[in-house]
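Why does residue order matter? Because the sequence determines the fold. Keep that principle in mind as you read this record.
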Amino acid sequence: MKLLRIIGSFLFVMILMNACQKEYSIENGNKGVAKGNWQFNNGSALYKGDMDTIYQISSGSTNELFLVGASTNGTQHFEMHLFADTFKIGTYKASAFQCSFFYSSSVETIYEASQLVGEFVVNITSIDDNNIEGTFSGTATDSSGNLVQLTSGSFNSTFAGGIINPPSSGVLGDSAGNCKPVTIGGTYAQGIPTTNANTLQVQVTVTTPGSYEISTNTVNGVSFSRTGTFAVAGPQNVLLFASGTPTTSGGNLFTLTYGNSQCAFTLNVSGDATGTLGSNAGACTSFAVNGTYQQDVPMNIGNTVTVEVNVATPGAYSISSDSVNGVRFSGAGIFSATGVQSVALTGNGTPIDAGVQNYNVVFGTSTCGFGLTFLPAAAASDDYFPLSLNSNWTYELTGGSASDAITTKVIGYSPTIGGQSYQVMQGIETQSSTVADSFYFRKPGGEYYQYVDFSKWFGFDQYVGSEFIFLKDNVGVLQTWSTPNISGTIGGNPVSGHVEMEILDKAVPVTSIPGFNFPDVIKVQYQYFITGITNPILTQERWFAKNTGEIYFSSNDGTSSKIYQVTAYQVF
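Structure:
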C-alpha cells in the first residue's frame, strides 16, 4: 500500500534530506558567535579545539541545531548536527535520525557518524538561552571507511547575546517603506470557515536575514499570519494564511505588521448566496450520481451527487437533501459568480436497507429530487484483508489536510510473479484521483503476503524484489516473525536490514476511530532494523478489522510520528 511505501522509504528520504539541509543551513547565515570548546578520543589519539559558531534553523516541524568549531591549530573542522522539535536535556541517537557528526580537513573527511554507520549518541546535559553542554560517543567511519569507536566526547558553548537564530529586520513594501498592494487568494463569505486556499501575498524588503513573523490584527473573526526564516536580504514575497470564520458580510480594514512597519488593506466578505436549483428557467435538471451504494457500507468522499444551481447573488451557500435510509447528502461553500453552476453534494451515513430510495434536495425556496439504488450487503468473509474486486478504503492523515488522503482499490488484474498469483490493489491520491502506484497481495490460508521492491523501503541503489508476510490471523498474541536479511547497496556501500513483526493484540474491539465500531481487530507491530544498529530505525503499527480490512496505520522514527485512519470503505 502507498501508506506503507511512503513511510517505508523514510530511510532513503532522510539520507537525502540530511545532505541537502546541511548545505542549505550553512548558507542560511543564521549564525551566532559562540565561545566554548570540544574534544573526543579515537583510542589514544585526542582531538580538541574551540567552538566558534552555533545556530538553529527550522525545517517544517523539525528544528535543526548546528555546533561548529575548529581544531586548536585551525586545520580541521568539527560539526555536530542535532534534530528535534525542541532542544532540551536528553539523549539524541543517530539510529533515530536525531544526530550526525562530521570531522574533516580541507582534503578529506576524517570521521563521520550517521544512522547508516552504527549507533552514535549525543547527550545534552545542560541547556538554556545562553549555554549548552553535553557529551558524545559511538561508532563512526574513518577516512578509509573503517569502523572506529569515538569515546570521551564532550562540548560546551556560550552563545553571544543569547541568540541562536536572530530575528530578521526590514520593512513591508519597498526599501523606503512604501506599502505595496497585497494579493488576496481565495473567496470569503459570511459563516464559511477559511482554509489553506485563503491566502495573502505581501511584499517585504529584508535588511538582515533571520527569523520573521508577519501578521494582521483580527477583524470580523479573521486574521492572517506566517512565520519562517529569511535566508537572504532584499525584496521577498511572503504568502500568509488565513484563520477564522467571517461573522458578517461587507468590507473589512486590516492592519499588516512586520517589525516596526505597518500597512493596511481591505478584505471584502460576501453574504449568503441566492438562487434556485436547476436551469436558467428554474426547472429541475438531472442529478449525476457518483460512487457505489451498498447496504451496511458507510458513505465516503466518493459518494457524491452533482446538482445544477442557477446563482442569482454570489455568496455563501448550503445545499442539502433529506435523510433517507440512513443517508443524507450535503454541501457548503461559496459561489463567486452568478449563473448556472454545478455543486457536488457528499453522502454521509450508513445505508440501512437495499433497494431504490428517493431523495429531495433543497436550496433556498426550490426543491428537486432524484432516485438512488442501494446494493444488498456483502456476505461476511471472515477475512482481515479482503481482496474482492472493487473493494476500496479511504484513509486520512491525523492532523493533515484533504490533499493527504489516500484511497486503495482492488482492481481486476492478477499477475503471476515467481510462480505465485497476486491480486493487485491501486494506491490513489484521493483528492486528485491520481493513481500513484500498484501493490501485489496474496492470501494462502491465514497468512497474508505482499510482494515488494525492498529498495523502495531501505533506499537501495538497485531493485530487490521479494514477498513477505505482513499479517498472520492464525497465530496468537505476542507471536513474532521476520523477513530474511535483505541486502543491497546505498551509494555503493553494502547495507542490509530486515523487518520484524509481532501480534500486539487480537480479537479486540476498536471504537477510537471516529464514526466506526470494529468488534474484531488484529494489531500488528513492524520494526525496521539496519544490520549493526541495535535499535529500530522505524516502528510502525497497523490494525486489521475482520470483514473490513486495514483501518489504522501509524509510524514513528524516533523524532516524529504519523497516523492514518480509515474514514470510509466498501467491501464487495
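The two ends are 19 Å apart (CA to CA).
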